[in-house]
Structures are given as C-alpha cells and as structure tokens.
Amino acid sequence: MTDDDRELPLAGVRVLELGNYIAAPTAGRLLADFGAEVIKVERPRTGDELRNWRLYAGDTSMLYRTVNRGKKSIVLDLRSPEGRAVALDLVGACDALVENFRPGTLDRWGMSAEELHAVNPDLVVARISAFGQTGPLAARPGFAAVAEAFGGLRALVGEADRPPARTGVSIGDSIAGLYAAFGVVMALFQRDRRTASGRAAPGPRDQQVDVALSEAVLSMMESLVPDHSAYGVTRTRVGGRMEGIAPSNAYDCADGSVVVAGNGDSIFGRFMTAIDRPDLADDPALQTNAERWRRRDELDHAIGAWTAARPRSEVLATLDAAGVPAGPIYEAADIRSDEQFAARGMVQSLTVDAGRGPQAVDFPGIVPVLGETSLPVRSVGPDLGEHTRAVLAEVLGWDAQRIDTFLEEK
C-alpha cells in the first residue's frame, strides 16, 4: 500500500467481491475508488462473464476494465471444497464481502450468513439480488432489465405510442451497486463507532446489507407511487419530456442536438424572449408549468423551429446569455474532448492492452470529487487471476511451495 493509498478515505479496508456482471462489481469499484483493497474472486478459465460483453478485440472488454478498476483478481473455484476453503480464509481477513448470487447459492456452498459470521464476527456482508433475500419472489432470478420493469422505470421510458424502451446502460445494476457500496460504508461506520464507544458490535443480521435490484430502481421513481396513492394518477411515457413540466426536451439544431430545461416560471419568460417569441413569454395562460404542459406541443414546435435554423454553438451561447439551462447532447468523442470534464479529471488516460497491444485508453474519472479534481484511477480492471499468487502470499501468508501446489491442483 502506497502513501497515497493510506490517505484515501477507505484505506485499510479490505473487501472480498464474489460477483459477476455489473451490480456487485459496481459496489466493489466504488469501494476500490476510494482506497479499499478489493479482492475479486473469479471462476477458473472464463472469469467474470463481463470480460466478454461488448468485446471488440482481445480477451477482456473495456466494460470489464472499467467496472473492475482498482481491484485484484484471484481465481478460485467456489464449487470445489478447496476453493471454498480459501474463500473462507479470505473472509477471515476481510472487513466486508459483496456478492450478487441468486439467494441461497452461498448457503448451498457452505457460506451462509451464520457460517461467514463464525469465521469473522465483524464481517459486513452486502448481498445484491433481483428481489431481495426475503419475500415470495426472493428465489426468483432476474437481471437489471427485469428489475427496471418491476420497479416502474420501464413504463416511463420511451414514446407513448411505442412499447417501453430501456436506457442505453444497465442502470438498475448501477443503482443497486451504489446502494450496496453505501450500505457497506454505513455498516462499517456503525461497527467502528460502537466498538470505539465500548458497546457490543452489531450481530450478523444487523451487518447484512440486503439490496434488491427492483427496490433500488423503485427508490429512484420519485413520486410515482404517492401520486397514484393520493390522486389515482398513473404516469405514462412522454418521450424526451418530463410529465407536468414544460418546456423541457431535446431539440435538433442545424448540426447537432441540445437539451433545454426552460420550465422554471421565471426562466420561461427569458427563454421565449431569447428565441424571439415575446408573445409566448407574455401569454397569461403560460405562466405556470401546469398551463405550459397543456400546450407542450405548441411550445416544442416553436423552440424546435428556432433551434433547427441555427448551429448548436449559437443556440447554446444565446441561451447561456439569457440564463436558460441548456447543454449539448454528447457522444463519446464529445466527452473525451470537453474542457469541463478535463478540468475536473473526469476523463483519464491509462495504458491497457485493448487487444492490439498496450495503448492509451480514456476512462471515466472517480465520482464524487474530493477536493478540486477526481482522484486518479489507480489501475484498470485486472487480467484474470493476475493477483492470485500475491493475495495468497500477502493476505493468507502462504509460501511459494503451497501456492504452487494449490495452483497445480486446480
């Protein structure tokens, strides 16, 4: 561990990650970003299946390299007694465990909550699953796509006259990973605070963080349920708009697209004046969001006609001068060259083998910022089993002969 590592908020925390895909690995990534030593257990030969998702060259995708940055990879077969024994030894040396297996899987492998607690009474366990560890659907499998539908998100994404759409990323997984990481930090804080005050540490059930993908999505749905409960309102898909708020949408320019949020009552007047529509700015029937929502098509037509006749740079400059929130709709190339992201270290270049030999590749920075710029990304997602020998030696204290014997038997 370097001096820089010891200054990070989670330096000295060790986490064992048992998980594939995105949810648990996202939790592990966030903990690693801020200094935790995250040991990622991967199956022999294939490793985390994310290694092959959106794989354009080589044997490890940039998706894996991104989601698993800052971690150590160790290969263990958790289906074998030998692999489970090593995993339990690692549990004894860790502060937290993060997993996203189907509920009951670890129990069948001899790694239930009680068995983990027996090995390490202070262990915090974060479990991520489709529907949680309890309830009538607990045993049902499900990816983020199912959870996004179950939690109410899919019903609101897309155009009203088309089937529900999805976002371009596995947003349900990422939200669940955020909650799991927060839960781990919260449980560690509670554990350490109680210990420091001389009180008994929390029990094994209190130290379990139970994150359901479906509930993580539901928690992001704002007043979807209260609006239905209080008023009988069922929200529907409205495309690029936000129900009840206008004007707020995406608009095409002569050479690109922008998003404009001109829905504040005072902002609206400035917005309409900026696009040479003082008649709309002064219209007494357009002074509240509810009134503007009823005439959203008229407003979008007026705005779209103005933006379409101008280059994006002119549109944004005009709206910025008028104090109207607006921004470009970026693609990857735009993000990589943007001055704002660069100033805050939110695009960082690291050397990685992308399938054609080592090359500089841009990766997203670390959020949130501590200080003025992003913390540096210390390493990309590791090669499969890259740290097996080091972990067995440094964490478990195995000598070279024992490591060689174990690896040969695999």
Written description of the protein model:
The protein is α/β, with parallel strands linked by helices and 410 residues long. The chain folds into two domains: 3-220 and 380-409, 3-Layer(aba) Sandwich (Rossmann fold); 248-329, formyl-coa transferase, domain 3. It is built from 19 helices and eleven strands. It has helices at residues 3-6, 23-33, 62-67, 81-91, 105-108, 113-119, 144-150, 171-196, 213-218, 224-231, 265-274, 278-281, 289-294, 296-308, 312-321, 332-337, 339-343, 388-394, 400-409, and strands spanning 14-18, 37-42, 71-75, 96-99, 124-129, 208-212, 248-253, 256-261, 326-328, 347-353, 358-364. The strands form three sheets. A six-stranded parallel β-sheet has the order 3-2-1-4-5-6, with helices on both faces. α2 crosses α8 (171-196). It is elongated. It starts with a helix and ends with a helix.
List strands and helices in order, with pairings:
Elements: H1 3-6, E1 14-18, H2 23-33, E2 37-42, H3 62-67, E3 71-75, H4 81-91, E4 96-99, H5 105-108, H6 113-119, E5 124-129, H7 144-150, H8 171-196, E6 208-212, H9 213-218, H10 224-231, E7 248-253, E8 256-261, H11 265-274, H12 278-281, H13 289-294, H14 296-308, H15 312-321, E9 326-328, H16 332-337, H17 339-343, E10 347-353, E11 358-364, H18 388-394, H19 400-409
Parallel strand pairs: 1-2, 1-4, 2-3, 4-5, 5-6
Antiparallel strand pairs: 7-8, 8-9, 10-11
